Amino acid sequence: MKKKLFTLFILASLLAFSHPGRTDANGGHRDRKNGGYHYHHGYPAHDHPNGVCPYESPKTTTSSNKSMSKTEIKKNLAALGYTGTNAIAEFQRDNGLVADGVAGKRTIKKIRERLGLN
């Protein structure tokens, strides 16, 4: 009986400290405990040095009927003078967007606009 109670207590504790599991289309979500935004990419939750995950995701971010891969986003931001781990957030801040570091529809649209791709 004590083993069952102990096991139940441990399971309840684990559930209390886990996140709800909801992620955006790219597998990311806001981390309320530690702050910031992170991605799972189909892997279990994990941290990396400097918060940079080396795993690439094959998914693309869509804007209307157009899509832009992560590689294209990095290349296009570099062409606009934004490089490094905070390139997306810096671009967003400089262009009047919510600086969350996530290349969503509005960010992709603004990148295309700035490059004259619309």
From TrEMBL:
Domain Peptidoglycan binding-like span(s) in chain numbering: 85-111
Entry keyword set = Signal
Checking InterPro entries in the record gives: Peptidoglycan-bd-like, PGBD-like_sf, PGBDSf, YHYH_dom_bact
Instruction: List compositional bias (Low complexity) regions by residue number.
Output: 59-68
Per its UniProt entry, which superkingdom is the organism in?
Answer: Bacteria
Signal sequence coordinates: 1-25
Q: Where is this region: Disordered?
A: 21-70
Matches recorded under Pfam families? PG_binding_1
Known NCBIfam families for this protein?
YHYH_alt
Q: What is this protein called?
A: Peptidoglycan-binding protein
- Provenance organism: Fusobacterium nucleatum subsp. polymorphum
